[in-house]
Amino acid sequence: MSELKWLKSSYSEASGNACVEIAKNGSLIAVRDSKDPELPWTSVGHEAWELFTGAVAAGHLPN
Q1: Confidence (pTM)
Q2: Taking Cα atoms as reference points, which of 5, 33, 30, 6 lies closest to residue 19?
Q3: Helix or strand or coil: residue 31?
Q4: What is the mean pLDDT of residues 2-6?
């Protein structure tokens, strides 16, 4: 597999203490914690990712 190109969320803290990074991984979205990039990451489908990010943007998830 080729190296993934990770992108930091625009909603991440500027200090870097609460960052999520994503990368396209074929037909999936890879997600990892940028504080620990060597730890395993997970993948979700595009539809699940869109539902999740839509819920976050709409404020439907608790803090």
Answers
A1: 0.75
A2: 33
A3: strand
A4: 85
